[in-house]
Prior knowledge:
Blueprint: H1 5-52, H2 60-63, E1 71-76, E2 83-87, E3 93-100, E4 116-121, E5 127-134, H3 138-143, H4 147-154, E6 164-168, E7 181-185, H5 191-205
Parallel strand pairs: 6-7
Antiparallel strand pairs: 1-2, 2-3, 3-4, 4-5
Amino acid sequence: MLKSQPGLDQRQPARRHGQKSLWARNLGSSLDRVCGLVLLLSVALMIIAPISAIAGELTRETLAPYFPSPFYVGEKDLEIPVWVIFKEGPVPKPVGYAFESIDFAQIPGFTGTPMNLLVAVDPEGQLLNVRVLSQHEPVFVSGLGEGPLNDFVDQYKGKSLLQNFRMSSLINRKGRVSENEVVLDGVSKATISVRIINQTVISTAL
Length: 206
């Protein structure tokens, strides 16, 4: 019995050594995963930071051409990047509010860069105007051109935010549409881009 005891003592360190190696490997693997997550987070922050730093650039002077007589643009709010739109008359009457979508909803476009739209809405939630200020969608930059894009956003004028907006082509308009729905004609080959525009309009105006 006493002779076999040294053998047991010799085997015990071997097991502890093996356990330590396994623990070290697991620890190293965990550290690798943590480092990987930190790296991914850093890259994500590098991507997000420039986007969140974007802000609208319109001034009262550059906004004025979008609201010709009998309308005019008032002063910009000191706290919220919004302009009050007035209607001319003996007593000027505020009829709506105008703002840049980039100040409220920076939704990445197809290339990752948010579009910037001019959105004007009245106090009852009716859209007075929607215009494209800047965009980098390949289909509208070097593909179809901006003509179909401008035709698409023209459809928002006069629509109410109290309604549900749906995308449809002329062919698919045979489906039933309720009184609380608005069907917008989409743009062929630009389905993703027009949906991003719609999401931008709704997110900023509500």
